[in-house]
Amino acid sequence: MLYYFLYPLAADFPLFNVFKYITFRTFGALMTALFLYLFLGKGFIRFLQRKQIGQNIREEGPKSHFDKKGTPTMGGLLILFCIGVAIALWGNLENAYLWIVLFVLYSFGVIGFLDDYKKVIKKENLGLQARVKFPLQVLFSMVAGYFLLSYLDFRPELVVPFFKTIHPNLGWYYLVVVFFVVVGTSNAVNLTDGLDGLVAGPNIVAFATYAALVYVVGNAVLAKYLQVLYIPGAGELTVFCGAVVGGILGFLWYNSYPAQIFMGDVGSLSIGAALGMVAILAKAEILLILVGGIFVLETISVITQVISFKLTGRRIFRMAPIHHHFELKGWAEPKVIVRFWIISLMLSLLALATLKIR
Questions:
Q1: How many CB atoms lie within 10 A of CB 312?
Q2: 190-210 residue pLDDT tens
Q3: Is residue 157 helix, strand or coil?
């Protein structure tokens, strides 16, 4: 909105020329989402408390978590609202890539909302059943992938990190990549959401990293210099990443230990799916293994725990996901959180280094 109304004034007032710059609008989107969450957060928490929309705690979980029962949840709703406002103000709404990412964000947000609604409001412990949730995730990811390949000049090539010439064209098989990356990342982020601030920190780092990556692939000069695929229009996703970082930072203000509010599935499923979609549009799908290394670690810990128990009757970890394992080993919750943040930051820096190590 600001982009359309203020940038045309640059012809008469050069000051407004800044609205054409992606970096300026990214900063504006970040600060808008951040301060909007900070401003609305307390009132939103009080609303959730009045409606008794509180977190349920698993009986088999760590005993230290029992005192968190009843903490307001579904804080992801406000994150999605703040992101939407920030994009409406600072984004170029004529950019098709931006609309695809927003579609993924909000469609998976609907899935998460239905899951939270059943668990928190309807008091159905299992929430949205897998036979409903998974097909919806497949459907929405495939719709996004179909429009990406059918209506946009998007190259369905898989870029291999560290190699500047290896990027096989998968054609329509690229839909399989879209499915695995979007759905996989969505569920991986959801699994990580188990401690106060744990899922927020790695997501902030991941979206900040991808803000740099999409800016590079969307800039003809930088893409040529770094010898990466140039994707016209992808740079606008930098603004989206900035808005997400701002929204999660605002959420973290209230979610930091001890948490006043939890994200809920409406937040974790949608943000995870959006991260996966941004990775695809940045042509850095494989790099997500590094950038989202914490999410990968959490997912692998659950998978190996289940397989080991079913095959041998023994558990590899004291509890999965792995953050609970470290809690049960005696690590204080804040220590687990901060150390996972540090690992996330180191992995993201390594991912950025691949731009030069090719």
A1: 9
A2: 999 888 889 999 999 999 999
A3: strand
